[in-house]
Amino acid sequence: MTKIEERRKAEGMSRSELSRQSDVPLRTLEDWEHEKTIPTNVYQLAKVAKALNCLIEDLIVIED
């Protein structure tokens, strides 16, 4: 489970609801949560973080 999915579920939010609140396409959120793509668009991440009441850093894994 990705950090985005964990946070979304902790907030009791569906993907569709997160998509509406963040204005990030549902397909993009699905791809991130299924690890088909890595979230790299900082503006989209910021919108998702705002909708989930957290920081971008709470949603990504920073590799050494």
Would you write up a description of this structure?
- The protein is an all-alpha fold and 64 residues long.
- The protein is built from 4 helices and no strands.
- The protein has helices at 3-10, 15-22, 26-33, 42-51.
What is the residue-mean pLDDT, rounded to a whole number?
96
H/E element order: HHHH
- Beta-strand percent range: under 5%
By helix and strand content, what is the structural category? mainly alpha
**What composes the largest sheet?**
none
Principal-axis shape equals: globular
Give the end-to-end Cα distance, rounded to a whole number of Å: 20 Å
Low-confidence stretches: none
Radius of gyration: 10 Å
Search tags:
globular; 64 residues; 4 helices; mainly alpha
In short:
The protein is mainly α and 64 residues long.
List the SSEs and their pairings.
Blueprint: H1 3-10, H2 15-22, H3 26-33, H4 42-51
